[in-house]
Amino acid sequence: MLVIRDTKGLLTLMSFTTFGLSAPILNAVAEQGYDTPTPIQSKAIPPAMQGKDVMAAAQTGTGKTASFALPILEKLSKGKPVEANQVRALVLAPTRELAAQVADSIATYGKHLPLRSAVVYGGVKINPQMMKLRKGVDILVATPGRLLDLYQQNAVKFKQLEVLVLDEADRMLDMGFINDIRKILALLPKQRQNLMFSATFSDDIRSLAKGLVNHPVEISASPRNTTATTIRQWVHPVDKKQKPALLTELIHHNKWEKVLVFTKTKKGANQLVKYLHNESIKAAAIHGDKSQAVRTKTLADFKRTDAKKGSVKILVATDVAARGLDIEQLPQVVNFDLPIVAEDYIHRIGRTGRAGMKGQAISLVSADEFKQLTDIERLIKQLLPRKLVDGFEPNHNVPESTLDLRPPKPKKPKKPKKLKTAGKTGLKGKPHSEGNPPGKKLGTKNKKPGGLNLQPRKKPSS
């Protein structure tokens, strides 16, 4: 049981039965082996059940999905049946992987209820998704671009909408979906419940929330911009050109069987996979240029716990995969490149150490990444330990860092772009596809290769 202590020091034992959920939902939760709610669930479910707007921040892997899925299922189970092409609850997610994961959880928790749910995202054919929506769905999980595509083709309508959820709202802003979100909000009924869930709440998120939620209950299950205490973090200083060889050495020496590796660019991910293949290491890349079918298969191969043919040992990903990848028992995450945005470090390493399990986060840092390193340390309010690896000592030393706890200077507010309108909907042109922010074309090559030497190492002569 979860022990909650109020301001007067009184203790309360919390379980899912205390929320007032119906038997079908409680049975589905119990079948998954859950009997004790997580801190974010214990704080977010009661106000959501009361119909209040909620702003909730929590680290990844803490059970955010159930925090909004359970109240929505309870509410919709007592309402009017959904009509053709209508949606009663809408969940917006930034990536295909996260949308699919949320949809799976909703289907699992609602398995004993007569409710229909569906998921729609870009990168796959739109006609099958239109067919799913024809009879109407109670809960629709969608990425912004594909949802606007479907609306333009009159495949989805919002007259019956009761609840809107923005999941990983900060990531949607980072990926450039702000204009799509504004367009979607303009299409929805004004009378609705709004639930905003995010790993962190930046100033931009709070600005968006002002025009979205009404007198929200604000919840934080953990301090802002912190990493899970179950994750051990450290840095290996190394020259950039030696990073591929060092990663290979770490994989072999530590006998790693399952590693998620993050690179800065799609091209860098593909090059690293090629290098690992030449070192006889099973690896695959997942990023925005990959089709949804390939991404789904690659992720399934990586999640395999057996050693069957086709299984993937090392998954190399860009930040499109930093959210939404739910991989059980992922022991370690490696930052092959440090992220440009410090907050992405938290989301990346949040793929390990989930649900109270232990994990490791290792960063390979070269001298030219010193600024990113200090930005990360400033954000998480701690200096990351450094460990040199014999044979990989850098010729270009990474400077020693000191912890700067001064608040960062506020960014100058950007002038909002005027949206082009077409008729009542305010829509014009085709929305960009998920995983590729506006202004970036699919398949474009990065002009800066990053100076990596990804040639296979020469075997020492005997």
Topology record:
Elements: E1 2-5, E2 11-14, H1 23-31, H2 39-49, E3 54-57, H3 64-76, E4 87-92, H4 96-109, E5 117-120, H5 127-133, E6 137-142, H6 144-152, E7 163-167, H7 169-174, H8 178-187, E8 193-198, H9 203-210, E9 217-220, E10 231-237, H10 243-254, E11 259-262, H11 266-278, E12 283-286, H12 292-303, E13 314-317, E14 332-335, H13 343-349, E15 359-365, H14 370-380
Parallel strand pairs: 3-8, 3-9, 4-6, 4-7, 5-6, 7-8, 10-15, 11-13, 11-14, 12-13, 14-15
Antiparallel strand pairs: 1-2
Helix pairs in contact: 2-3, 3-4, 6-8
Question: In a nutshell, what does this entry contain?
Answer:
By secondary structure, this protein is of the alpha/beta class. The protein has 14 helices and 15 strands.
Explain what you see.
This protein has helices at residues 23-31, 39-49, 64-76, 96-109, 127-133, 144-152, 169-174, 178-187, 203-210, 243-254, 266-278, 292-303, 343-349, 370-380, and strands at 2-5, 11-14, 54-57, 87-92, 117-120, 137-142, 163-167, 193-198, 217-220, 231-237, 259-262, 283-286, 314-317, 332-335, 359-365. With 462 residues, it is of the alpha/beta class. It contains 14 helices and 15 strands. Helix 2 packs parallel to helix 3. The longest helix has 14 residues, at 96-109. A seven-stranded parallel sheet has the order 5-6-4-7-8-3-9, sandwiched between helices. It has a six-stranded parallel sheet with strand order 10-15-14-11-13-12, sandwiched between helices. The chain has two domains: 2-220, P-loop containing nucleotide triphosphate hydrolases (Rossmann fold, 3-Layer(aba) Sandwich), CATH 3.40.50; 231-380, P-loop containing nucleotide triphosphate hydrolases (Rossmann fold, 3-Layer(aba) Sandwich). The chain is 31% helix and 16% strand. A hairpin with a 5-residue loop joins strand 1 and strand 2.
